[in-house]
Design goal:
16 helices; Rossmann fold; globular; 370 residues
C-alpha cells in the first residue's frame, strides 16, 4: 500500500504526529509500505521508517504539491502499483482507479470557518467534499469527528474510527531524569508554571489563557506561563497582547519543542491548560494525562470525550471560568492532585498506537475488498 506523507512539515506537530506514527509502524505490521514524499524529503522518512520504500514524487512547494496531487499523483506508477492508497490529511488524488482511504481529522472548516484562513477554508471544503464522495473508506480520529462528518456531509463511504494513541514508553508519570532533560534545554522548573502546547492560532484558545493568566499572576508572584508550539496564522493580535501583558516577563514562548523534551514539560507543569475551541482529537490532552499531569480543557468538545473524569472541564472562551478552574487546581491538596493524576493515567491507558494501527488495518482491508 502507499501512504502519502508529503504534507508533513520538517518539524512534526499536530496531524503530522499522527501521520509520522502510522508511517513508522505500518512496515512493522508486515504491510508492504511505500511512503510518498516530497522530492527533497527522502532522508527524513528513511530514518523514521527504514523498512518502507520511499517514493519522492511530490514537488516541494505547497501550491505545486496540491496541484500535483489533484492532477497527476493518482495516475502515477506508484498509485497504479498498490492495492490501497492512504491520503492522511483530508485531500486525495483525483481520477485514480486505486482504492482510496482518506483521514478526516475534524469538521471545523465547515462548522467554524472563522477559525481558519479564508483561502484554506475555500480549498479544503471543496477537497473534503470530493474525498467524502470519492474515497472508498474514510478514517476519523475520534467518534466526535465521525458524528460531525455524518451530520455535516453524510458521506456514502464507509467510516472507520481510529482514535489516536500515546507512546506510553515515553509519556508516563515517572519523573526521574526530568531535571536533566530540562537543564539540557536551558529550562528550570524552579518556579510553578502553567503549560500550553499546540499550534498558535485563534481556535486554540490561547488568547483566553493569556487573559486568565493575568488574574492568576496577580495573586501569585512566582507563577509563570510556558507556551510551546509553532506559530500558525492570525497570531498578530495575540503576540501584541503578550508583549503588552502586565506580567509579560513571566510568559515564556518556547517555540517548537523537541519530542524528547515534551513529556518532562508535561510532568513538571503545575497545570497543563488546553483551552481549545475545537479539535478533531486533542492529542496534547491525552499525552498530558498519560504523564499524570493535572489538565484543564474544554467541555462539549472531543477533549472531554477523550479525558473523561481525568481532567477539569471549562467552557470554551470563558476566561473567568478558566482562571477559577486553574486557581482551584493550584490550591488543591496534594492527595487530591495525586488522585486526579491516577484517574488521568488510567483513562489514557487504553489509547495506544497499536489500537490505532489495528483500526487502520481494518480500513485498508475494507478499501481493498472488491
Amino acid at each position: 500500500m502507499a501512504l502519502d506523507v508529503s504534507a508533513v512539515p520538517a518539524r512534526i506537530a499536530g496531524a503530522g504526529r499522527y501521520i509520522g506514527e502510522v508511517a513508522a509502524r505500518l512496515p512493522d505490521l508486515d504491510v508492504e509500505t511505500t511512503l510518498v514524499t516530497r522530492r527533497g524529503d527522502v532522508a527524513r522518512w528513511q530514518a523514521r521508517s527504514p523498512r518502507a520504500t520511499i517514493a519522492p514524487l511530490v514537488p516541494n512547494h505547497r501550491g505545486l504539491r496540491l496541484a500535483y496531487e489533484a492532477t497527476r499523483l493518482g495516475s502515477s506508477k506508484v498509485a497504479r502499483g498498490v492495492d490501497v492508497w492512504h491520503a492522511p490529511h483530508y485531500t486525495m488524488p483525483r481520477g485514480s482507479k486505486t482504492p482510496m482511504v482518506v483521514t478526516i481529522h475534524d469538521l471545523t472548516l465547515f462548522t467554524h470557518p472563522e477559525w481558519h484562513e479564508r483561502a484554506k477554508v475555500t480549498f479544503f471544503q471543496r477537497a473534503i467534499r470530493y474525498s467524502t464522495t470519492h474515497a472508498k473508506v474514510l478514517v476519523c480520529v475520534s467518534d466526535f469527528t465521525a458524528r460531525e462528518l455524518r451530520d455535516v456531509l453524510a458521506p456514502s463511504a464507509t467510516v472507520v474510527v481510529a482514535p489516536l494513541g500515546v507512546d506510553h514508553d515515553r509519556f508516563h508519570p515517572d519523573a526521574r531524569g526530568d531535571d536533566v532533560l530540562l537543564a539540557g534545554a536551558q529550562l528550570r522548573a524552579s518556579k510553578p508554571y502553567l503549560f500550553f502546547l499546540g499550534t498558535l492560532e485563534p481556535r486554540k484558545g490561547l488568547d483566553v489563557l493569556v487573559k486568565a493568566f493575568g488574574a492568576l499572576a496577580a495573586l501569585d508572584d512566582e507563577l509563570e506561563l510556558w507556551i510551546a508550539g509553532q506559530s500558525g496564522w492570525g497570531m498578530g493580535p495575540l503576540a501584541e497582547e503578550i508583549r503588552a501583558h502586565p506580567y509579560a516577563s513571566r510568559i515564556r514562548r518556547l517555540g517548537f519543542v523537541d519530542e524528547e523534551l515534551l513529556p518532562a514539560l508535561l510532568r513538571q507543569a503545575r497545570v497543563v491548560v488546553y483551552p481549545s475551541r475545537g479539535e478533531g482529537f486533542g492529542l496534547p490532552v491525552l499525552e498530558a494525562m498519560a504523564c499524570g499531569a493535572n489538565v484543564v480543557t474544554t467541555r462539549e468538545s472531543v477533549m472531554a470525550e477523550v479525558a473523561g473524569d481525568g481532567a477539569v472541564l471549562t467552557t470554551a472562551g470563558d476566561e473567568v471560568e478558566l482562571s477559577q478552574a486553574i486557581a482551584d487546581l493550584l490550591e488543591e491538596p496534594e492527595d487530591a492532585r495525586r488522585a486526579r493524576a491516577q484517574r488521568a493515567v488510567a483513562n489514557a491507558a487504553p489509547f495506544t498506537w497499536a489500537r490505532t494501527m489495528s483500526a487502520h488495518l481494518e480500513a485498508y482491508r475494507l478499501a481493498a475488498r472488491p
